[in-house]
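Please check this.
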Amino acid sequence: MPSSPRTLLLFNYDWDAVGHQRAGAAQGMAFDEAGFDLFSFPSNARLAWFDMERFVRRLARQAKAKGWTAVTSNHEQFGALAAAVLAERMGWPGTPVAAVLACQHKLHARQVLQRVAPEANLDFALLDAEYGAPIPSGIGYPRFVKPVKAAFSVLTRTVHTHAELHRHTRFGAWELWVIRRLVEPFERMAQQRLGPGLPSAHRMLLEAPVQADQFNLDGYVFGGDVHAIGVVDAVMYPDTQAFMRFELPSKLPASVQARALDVARRFLQAVGFTHGLFNMEFFFDAATDRLTVIEFNPRMAAQFSDLYLRTQGLDLHAVSLALAHGQDPASVPRTAPTAAVAASFVYRVFDAQQPVTMPDAQRQQALALAFPDALLFAYPKPRGSMARDFKWLGSYRYGILHLSGRDQTDLHRRCKLASERLGWPAPYREPALAPSALTAITTPAELPQPLPILSNPDTSP
């Protein structure tokens, strides 16, 4: 038997691999891992025979011998739900299974929101057609279309005509197989847990398109009480639905942030979300003073954990681990913030013919020397995977870089200089800074402690 309790981490990749290692080292925690990487071969070959109920049963049988006393996951596709089911089976603290399902079934979530916060909802309807089936007539355009169950903004798009919606929902046999294998574990459990009459998750949802600024409310629920952690601003590439960067602290007025928290509280209470981290994506249109919910994620937005650590001294992965062990997140110690502002910069191309060059060892070393606080993820992909991204996502995300700054001007200057070292265009569209502001690099003495440069062979936004 293990000599001390251990925490089980499910589908622990990318941001979570970094965050759990950091938080675990700080707290002296021991971990085991289970699950597979959906975006790298041969790990993702396990999708062919993955069965969530069998996966959870196997872990439950191993728990006592392994010494596990808690489980956590921030993986949207399978991990959050599997962790909730395992916690329920073992009697460990966890997010209620029905609450996870209610958040992830986007049509069901819209229906709940319509009951409890209609002012924050938008027009929606189920597309009454299976994948690949003929598109019904009588649909008003434009419409924003997205899967009832998906992750990473896959297959989300604004369509303006019947023909465009038809093209968007045509898939080859291999694509249909992948989509079904990704959704079926969720579909089986949702049908069991959310009651009779639930529409199939193997469908698309139509929504009224919204043109407004986008934000993320991050928070947690402990003892049934909903607490806000902060709001992250999402900045899009111009004239696209693709994220260009995420920034902290938010520019959103405190009064609007309070409204967002009120909407979140009503929704989370309605779906029985009594424990765990959550992330609410929403629009706010300052011209009309309207706040509109995009969706609820029943887990941490792991990409933001590092941003909160830099600007608030709060490690969201430490919060996640505390919740997994039934501890009040308010007891999680904070460190001194290392920056006034921080951002997650997203590098993309929108033209499949545009070449992308990954930074070699020399460029990565140059980045690390000049910017010891940089956290880099590079996503080189084979041509076939890139083609899938352009079809399913509308762009190819080839890198993400986290940086901090003294203020917005300093942050943007550092992004430009760091991007030059990587050989990539800086991912922001702001008024040009004065040339003199672009000549100096913040000295190493002014920077936070180094963070690792990482590379993942294949992943998806």
Remarks:
- The CA atoms of residues 210 and 283 lie 8 Å apart.
- The first strand starts at residue 6 and ends at 10.
- Residues 173-193 form the longest helix (21 residues).
- Residues 430-461 have pLDDT under 50 and may be disordered.
